[in-house]
Amino acid sequence: MPQAHLRDLHPRLSRFVRASEPRAADDILGDVWLAVASMLLPLAMFQLMARGMELNIALCAIVLACLAGGVSAVGAPATAEQFPGEGRLSGLALGVTMATAIFGGLTPFLAELFIKMTGWQAVPGAMIAAVALLVLPVLLRMPETRPPPAPLLLQGDRAEKHG
Fold it and tell me: What does pTM read for this prediction?
């Protein structure tokens, strides 16, 4: 029994140490860049689409799809990594389901309502920008989940990496 506890201790300690490590500057820069792009591009794209020209609409939709793809490519694994391995699937499923139910159902209604109230066609872009602004502090506080580099072991004159 004590050996099982010792085996479980290493991953738990590793997770604790990694969570307290400072994040790399390139990670933070990437988060900030994506958040700023998520604030500015939707506003501009919805404003251009409101002009009604088919080419503008198509190009703006492609730009927004690329932005959404970038957010999804990073967001899905980053969200999953916030949960411990044994509860990851349940935590991710519950979070995604709740977010989809709340935001997926309510957002189109609110966007249409705000467009009717204000007459501003770029309201959906402003809503996306507001969410990006609110998420930025969360992104900056998320712990680093990348595994630490493999230790460098010296054997004689030859250096080898072990993982």
Answer: 0.69
Domain boundaries, the chain: 25-143
pLDDT tens per residue across span 18-64: 444 455 555 667 767 888 898 999 999 999 999 999 999 999 999 99
C-alpha dist (Å) from residue 71 to 5, 8, 33, 91, 118: 38, 33, 11, 20, 29
Q: Which of 128, 142, 140 is nearest to 68 (CA)?
A: 128
Contacts of 80 (CB under 8 A, 6+ apart): 88, 92
Burial call 120-134: b when 16+ CB within 10 Å, e when fewer: eebbbbbbbbebbee
CB hemisphere CA count around 121 (13 angstroms): 10
